[in-house]
Backbone:
């Protein structure tokens, strides 16, 4: 399994978490283990665990840097993409900010609306700039 494939699954799991509002860390890790294989499995579990553990901080960053939409009103796919991107940038040592932004834009183009890619790019750019 490639990192790109694992990233797509991680985004989908975060979407499921938000849509179902019932998953916890254990359930998320079990679903991760079912869907992600190979060397990406442990990396995905680590990132997803960190995202859930630090969800309030991640959402606070999104809300601070999003001019038009707060997390409570944001499309769930866009929110999942942003959470994953921030989680990867903060809690994975093996990925650059440029890759995080690029991959997030690709996920938005594949799974969301035409307006999502520029929105995600703007929010992520602001967050990553603030954190550097």
Residues:
């Amino acid at each position: 399994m490639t990192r790109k494939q694992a990233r797509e699954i991680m985004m989908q799991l975060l979407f499921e978490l938000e849509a179902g509002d019932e998953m916890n860390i254990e359930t998320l890790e079990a679903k991760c283990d079912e869907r992600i294989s190979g060397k990406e499995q442990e990396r995905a579990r680590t990132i997803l665990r960190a995202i859930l553990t630090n969800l309030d901080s991640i959402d606070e960053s999104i809300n601070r840097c999003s001019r038009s939409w707060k997390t409570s009103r944001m499309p769930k796919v866009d929110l999942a993409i942003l959470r994953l991107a921030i989680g990867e940038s903060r809690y994975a040592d093996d990925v650059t900010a440029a890759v995080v932004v690029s991959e997030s834009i690709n996920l938005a183009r594949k799974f969301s609306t035409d307006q999502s890619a520029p929105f995600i790019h703007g929010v992520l750019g602001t967050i990553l700039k603030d954190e550097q």
User: Anything to note?
Assistant: DSSP finds seven helices and no strands in the chain. The chain has a mean pLDDT of 93. Helices lie at 3-20, 25-35, 40-53, 55-65, 76-91, 97-111, 116-131.
